[in-house]
Amino acid sequence: MADPARWICRPDLVTLALLLSFFSSSAWAASQQVGAGGSGALPLDVTAERIDYRQDQEVYEAEGSVVIRQGNIRLTADHATIQALPGILTATGQVHLVDSQADLTAERLELNINTEAGIVTHGRLYLPTSNSLLTGRLIQRFSEYHYRVKEGTFTNCDADEGQVPAWRMRFDDVDLTASDTLAFKGAWLCVLDVPVLPLPTLSYPLSSRQTGFLVPFVGYDNRFGLHGQETFYWAINPSQDLFISPSYYSNLGYGSDFEYRYALNRRSRGQWFLSYLQQTELPNVSGVTDTGQDAKKARGVLAGTHTQYLTESLLFRANVNLVSDPNYLQQLSNSGAQRALPSNENNLLATQLLPYGNVYLWGQYLQPLQLGGKDTFQRFPEVGYNLPYTSLLGSPLLFGTESDAVHFYREEGFTLSRVDVVPGLSTDVIDLGHVIGITPQAKFREVYYTRGVQSSEGQHRETFWTGINAASKLTRRFQLDEGVGLLHTLEPSVIYEYVPKTNQSNLPQIDQVDDLPAKNLLTYMVRSRVLEQSATKLFNWLDLMVAQSYHVGAVQTRARDFTPGASPLFGTLTQPLQPATVDIQGRRFSDFWLRAVVGNNLPQFVQAQTASQTFARGAAPMTGLRPSISQYVVVDAFFDPYRNGELTQFNTDLRLQDDTDWYVEVGQRYAREGPRPRRGDIWNPFSLNEVYAPTPEVQFVTAGGGFRTPWGWTIGGKAYYDVKNGRSPEYDILALYQNPCKCWSLGLYYLQFPDRAQYNFMLSLTGIGWTENFGTALMRQLFTPLLWGERGLPWASPGGPYGRPQIGTFTAP
């Protein structure tokens, strides 16, 4: 024989290689299916320093640097024996088997081709998909999917050969069902190889969606006391799952959370959450007093969404946000935004696309929280038709319309219906010397009410809006370095609008359709942009807009007053039918409106803390889009032209980030005592036709950010401060430690509210799971810009080699 020898095996040994492929892929990864051997199978290549064949025994001996290949499978060893008659393959000496799913090393491997049973001595198996390492003195193979490991270890930590991992499981016996579970017996959880927690029996899922118990968590709240929660996860089928999470609060009560997710098919999916609390004690928070009433009562929240495409052009969507009582979020939520919500919105939408426009059916229910009551108008149903501007018979004349009919219902007080029809005419842009573009427009509005504020008779109002817009755009490009240039655009525009005065004293004012003040206004605006462009970079150096309006006709003399507690002209505090108004000194010139953006202020694809309607669960829905590393400053201000340009409003937002090392965000809000300009209206979003009634001065500052330290800690925080009143409604401090190989992490947080403080911890073991609690959403929101895609985080993290949800995603059938 040649040395080195190369031999292409015959069909029965092809079968041997295929069974070997079954062993390597299905035993450890359980995701690759290999067909039976035959003439169409891939050939088995054997390379060694020496190959001998004993014909009388049908035995092949490969010695020295043995390499066996078939497809993407590669087996190496010092020595290999193939017994064709009994069907036994034996490999010894530095055995190493690699395929697309697993990496196996051992001292000795023996496989019975006929029974598919095998034994591995002192084996070491690495699963790259979950970064898991399993070792054992003896690995027994009973079938294609069933194995048992004796006296071994299991870990997800990265550790070099001979190095002690941060944590691992030591066990006497493990029963392994591929793509299902690991069942431990006689196990210990070891930290730095020191046994810390005995686990007589433990079942651990190998796949990302397995029915079973998740990691429990325990926390403490100085108002609600000790809190414990355990979650049972039920993988109903590949497209549905359910979380059941009983919980207990020592100073509040007990209950359970239920979360159901489904994707019935590619056109139907949704997610629903129910939190039930059996309160045994009154919440120890501000605004709650002991009136002698029984504190024992049931409380809860229901939140969910369902999206259904009935056809390619017919969409149905429902959003539900309900609480058992108006004080639920204010007393129990950890989100400042939720605690300040005036109402919870629930809506139902069905929309059908048509060859021209679309028709829709909409319903809305506002559950009163801080504002509203039984006399709050609910919008159900509303039906409408919209047609965007479309050419009439191919002419330059464009026609469009917006129309709807809505019924306003409420438990107390009268109900009414309203029909609103708004046809409109426009033209294509009329060029004047290719320098100025003129666009004339006109809209006619007919609104009918089944009754008025004081009269039960039907009411109607006819009006129109006409406008003419003149705009120009000047562009110049400056070449900097090779392939890099600056694009400067200057866009001046002027629009004149006219709306006649109408009598709306007997019309209920529920939304902006009902309040249509007279308008004889000229608005002029200049927008200047400087954009750096290259093959790899797009940066906004300046986006500046300056606008002002001038009253050609009469000026405003009365302004609507939305100050809390102001008595409306008609209606109640919970449902004004016509808001209160006050006398003001009208002006022909509005304030100057300036808005400037420097930098790329693309939105962060991070779900806000307010995404969860519950106070007990904080994990927000996950998005697979990496948050942009944005650096920008935004200035939005108003200047009074009658007081030498004095500031009336000044708002800024600043964000700086250095890669994934640190970032900071600062926001500031200032409003001078006096009237507030109304930005835009139903006709034009940029006009400044009105002001609101004077309000007190406002000064507010927000700040947040995070940074990474060289010692594995990421530290961040968020704070709100009312400068005018000298108090902070909320501040949060968070810290997260990740060990060097990121196989475990520890999160700590402290939340301070005006009426209570909360602190807790989160623990993550990579590949096993993490604890989830109050601070999960906030920590994820603050640290995602720095830690996106990394593994070992105590929240669901897309991207990265091991950054995947604790339970995983599911697919529609």
From TrEMBL:
The keyword Signal applies. It comes from the Bacteria. The keyword Membrane applies. Residues 298-676 form the LptD C-terminal domain. Keywords: Cell outer membrane, Membrane, Signal. InterPro entries: LipoPS_assembly_LptD, LptD, LptD_C, OstA-like_N. This is LPS-assembly protein LptD.
